Amino acid sequence: MIIDASIRAELHTIRDYIRYGASLFTRKKLFFGHSTDNAWDEAVALVLHGVQLPVQSGQEVLDARLTNDEKLSITELFERRCQHIPAPYITGECWFAGLPFHVDERVLIPRSPIAELIQNRFAPWLPAEPETILDLCAGSGCIGIASALVFADAEVLLSDISADALVVAEQNIVRHDVVERVAVCESDLFEQISGCFDLIITNPPYVDALDLAAMPDEFRAEPVLALESGADGLDFTRRLLAEAQPFLTERGCLVVEVGNSRHHLEAAFPQVPFNWVDFERGGHGVFVLFRDQLLACADYFD
């Protein structure tokens, strides 16, 4: 056991376990980037989950003494984390755009900077509030559901090639009480999709082969289908750019995350006027294109 009985005998409070967990995670050289970015916050999330307290709990809980069962529960959580399993898979929850979402190993853990765009109502990119929204490669459904909650009159479709991922998305649709406006569709890109959308958003697979090979072990717990996209990370994005225009309304807007593959994209399509989004809270590699721009650049995507 990663915290044996002699050590547990010296740890008594929530504060003790957070401090010990942070030190343990640092010694084990764990990677942080799935909802937290440091060992202390990771320990806070796991300890509070272990004692069934909300992650937003204040400092008044830090000196609460723990029962032996609670100590064992936290120890088990720490053991799983030291196997390089991301914390949200252990707790079953991740926050995105200020909202909680259920997650497990069937979906990518939400961390897209598109959350900031959603909370800003996609300003200044949308000419008017969207009536129809498509979330491609939806995974947990966090992008589409958060957008549905921001645009209360919009109809939203969550699409993914993975039937397993859509089971998780459906759980989140129910959780956020948007069943009447948010639907799911199993589809490889646009194959099973009909109609046009004012807004198409996607955080697709975009990791290139070199980045994939160098990723920390925590990323290997995530579905590879949601990460890898060929040698340059653009296999999906190339298809998207070639096929998206007919699925956008006249005022339609396409929002795509490509992360570190931005330089590959700009090298592949130097004539395309990608509009790159600047984020105040960090993040990069998200571009916006409008229907008219896709139409004008159609020859480049063939």
Structure commentary:
- It is elongated and about 70 Å long.
- 36% of the residues lie in helices and 16% in strands.
- It is of the alpha/beta class and 302 residues long.
- It has two domains: 5-91, no CATH class; 96-301, Vaccinia Virus protein VP39 (Rossmann fold, 3-Layer(aba) Sandwich).
- The termini are far apart.
- The strands form two sheets. A seven-stranded mixed beta sheet has the order 5-4-3-6-7-9-8.
Overall radius of gyration: 21 Å
The rough form would be described as: elongated
What is the end-to-end distance?
57 Å
Number of strands: 9
User: Fraction of residues in helices?
Assistant: 25-40%
CATH domain class of the largest domain: Alpha Beta
What average pLDDT do the residues reach? Answer: 95
Annotation field: number of helices? 13
CATH superfamily label of the largest domain: Vaccinia Virus protein VP39
Strand order of the largest sheet: 5-4-3-6-7-9-8
Major beta sheet summary: 7 strands, mixed
Strand content bin: 15-25%
Q: According to CATH, what is the topology of the largest domain?
A: Rossmann fold
H and E order: HHHHHEEHEHEHEEHHEHEEHH
In the predicted model, the low-confidence regions spanning at least 5 consecutive residues are none
User: What is the level-2 CATH architecture name of the largest domain?
Assistant: 3-Layer(aba) Sandwich
Feature tags:
36% helix, 16% strand, Rossmann fold, alpha/beta, elongated, 9 strands, single chain, 2 domains, 13 helices, 302 residues, two-stranded antiparallel ribbon
